[in-house]
Amino acid sequence: MRTWFFTLASLLCAVLTTFSQSTHQEISPVDWVNPLMGTASKPSLSTGNTYPAITLPWGMNCWMPQTGKMGDGWAYTYDADKLRGFKQTHQPSPWINDYGQFAIMPITGKLRFNEDERASWFSHKSEIAKPYYYKVYLADHDVTTEISPTERAAALRFTFPQTEDAYVVIDALDKGSYVKIIPSENKIIGYTTKNSGGVPDNFKNYFVIQFNKSFANTAVWHGKQLETKELEQKADHVGAVVGFKTKKGEQVYARVASSFISAEQAERNLNEIGDDSFDTVKDKAKAVWNKELNRVKAEGGTDDQLRTFYSCLYRTMLFPRKFYELDANKKIVHYSPYNGQVLPGYMFTDNGFWDTFRAAFPLFNMLQPTLNTHIMEGLVNAYKESGFLPEWASPGHRDCMVGSNSASIIADAYLKGVRTGYNINTLYEAILKNTQTEGPFSSVGRKGASYYNRLGYVPYDVKINENAARTLEYAYDDFTIYQLAKELKRPQSEIDLFAKRSQNYRNLFDPTTKLMRGKNENGTFQALFNPFKWGDAFTEGNSWHYTWSVFHDVQGLTNLMGGRREFVKMLDSVFVVPPVFDDTYYGSVIHEIREMQIMNMGNYAHGNQPIQHMIYLYNYAGQPWKTQYWAREVMNRLYQPTPDGYCGDEDNGQTSAWYVFSAMGFYPVCPGTDQYVIGAPLFKKVTVQLENGKTLLINAATNSEQNRYIKVLTVNGKLYSPNWLSHKELMQGARLDFQMTDKANTQRGVNSADFPYSFSSAKQ
Question: In the record, which residues are listed under signal peptide (predicted)?
Fold first, then answer.
């Protein structure tokens, strides 16, 4: 009897396992993605500060359901009860806010167009959110809305009840807008100028909306005034309303497109849909997403791990946004967000390099080198059109964050083989200009450049905020310039200059605390130093976070701290000290502080970018097993495929790229070098289809929740002891076999010959 029972139980388990595996095989990568991950956010606490972006990879336009009021950066929050419309958006961050946006809302019953009056209750239980498709039921109007995108257009489908009072409201928003209804063509055209800065005076986003059903009635509105006898309106805040008589379940199909160039170009962009049905647009959009996501196939993880991985990979494919269009001759052209002209060539925008130089752009160099070629041409154009490289663009220059990290992005791309289709000499010229001058905003050029070039640091007492952060980032950027200058065979004196400046981080190291500290112009350290003070000399962090911003010379930092033992002790201390903080610089607890405080990982603040690489630094001191432990801890504890799934701002793909790299088992600690620093793979198998046709295979068959440590690593069948991997070798196709175990291997990767690159220990 017992034998029969166990035989049956074994068969049942086998059947369930087979069913589970086949189910996973049937799920396409895009259907693992949860666009709602990170949307349960608010100004006081970010769990991502994301919105469900319904778009194509790097698409010029995104669409989103709108819960927030007009102009609110938190335009969709998971805890909201009502939807006010469906908005075309270009927002890269709630802190930067939006531009070129307008909203569409279907309603029934009494005609109302005000955003509060037209709003409808909705439930997440009747909401479907995919990158290629969004669907929701609007309870107050008994209308179901569906959206599916192309790069510059979108298909919207409204399913109405039986009524003579079905309407679609178009809201062109305030700050100057225009609408015109063309009943004979079932069409609405117009433009919106609403923006949050960074645009020329002639900025407009032109839109066209083409319906498949004749209008029963029409109206336009401005402010609070409805005009039923007019078809055109231009004022500060205008919109349009078109009415229909519908049968129960009748679907009204609207094709929508926009352009930053002209109304004629908006019509041209509508051809991205052409005569396609809604379902055809949806199927094509799904296929595009699957093509891109299929570049990385993860297997052998839990459902939540797969959802998190592909949700993060999706987020890395939203920014920087394509800001170019195809003209009548299919030539690539763009409206310049810098000088207002329509010019040939690529343009990209909506990116903060302070965030994304760390992992997002290195991920492009591995997975999307052709895309990054186009981005580099876009940087050439931005420099020609504005005189500076864009450090934070949305769509033009924005005054946000510090550093001149365009140098890192450009150098890393060129050094990793992204070299065709753009003029590297023009970009090098732009990089050199950054090192010599301040720009029109503090985020452009180098704030404090004259001090930095003369003293080797930006002083604490010369009224330049976040001076220590600037110094540390400038020193790293100078290292990337040094690397690029060598490759371009620049004069030796120039190469030597940037090699010397790359060591400027040493000027801020305080041997009494073994931490980085602001320094006054006369060479003395700042008084009343509190290493837990956020801001002040640092940017959205404290000294415990920024001390590790010596990406290029970890050995040099180790030497300053007194050797490997002290270096590891300081690394350990980040997790050991309580999450104490000093918020006096800001005058209140900013959200980044709160996010660190509640994560129960000491003073480790993964929710913000400066410290995200720090876990990997144990590899430079002969204790790689601690990297393996903490990498898995962060992946397990701080990322979930849920509305509160991030531990801070997602920030244009950077926090997501950290997860993607870490789940594969390595991370680009120092862009501008050829190396990835090894962590611990999350899945049993990851297959990366490289753009050059080669395959990178990452096997970790013994991986499990307990087995987070590397016992043995072989690369292409040969035993491998270094704590780093070569980009060049991986791009030639490689097989990595990790044998994972539940106990730390304290004998592997402990010799200095196994450590990753550091400027101080490398042969120059």
Answer: 1-24
